Each structure stands twice: as C-alpha cells, then as structure tokens.
Amino acid sequence: MLQTRPELRVVAEVGDGLEAVQKAQELKPDLILLDIGLPTLNGLQAAKRIRQVAPDAAIIFVTQQRDEDLVQAALSTGARGYVLKTGAGRELLPAVDAVLRGDHFVSPGAGGKR
Hints:
Blueprint: H1 17-27, E1 31-34, H2 43-53, E2 58-63, H3 68-76, E3 81-84, H4 88-100, E4 105-106
Parallel strand pairs: 1-2, 2-3, 3-4
Helix pairs in contact: 1-2
C-alpha cells in the first residue's frame, strides 16, 4: 500500500523488535511502522529504544490490539499514530500523512484518546 505513493519509499522490513531498533539506528528513517506483538522485543519496547537511536523518526503502530491501556502505552512511547489492522486499508495512508506533517492519528475503533 505504501508503495502506491511515489513520495514514500520502503527502506527496510524486519521480523522482530530488536532488528527494528538496529535498522532504525542504521537507516534513520522518517517513519517507522511497528506492531505491538513483535518477537524478541515487543513493539512498545522497540519504540522506546528507537526513540533513543532515531529520535526524529515518526512511529505509527499498526496492530490488532484495541485495548485502551495498550493504545495509551503506545502513544506514551512517543508514537504519533495508532492504526488498527482491521481499518488499515482505509486508515493507513491518512495516518501516514497526518504523522508526517506532525499531527497524531488514532483509529476511531481504538480505545485511546486522540
């Protein structure tokens, strides 16, 4: 879906949270998409470490987790977006646009506040 937008370029895909931190440190991307349920380091732990190694990277969680406490925990890591996988087809690109211009985005079905 991201590759349909010429201004967006996927620079890496990873299989676990530790690798996400390593790639963030190496590549210093503008935007990082994370799932909460990553192996090795979960997404929340990875986001906290990413904030240290790539503080300018915007983070969007893309996950199936709707729990309000998880949404708030994700946003407390410094993430600017939280997109539910069930709505990603219609919400991911608007979330990317919002986050890249400095705004926040939370899927309407997620338990957190916007």
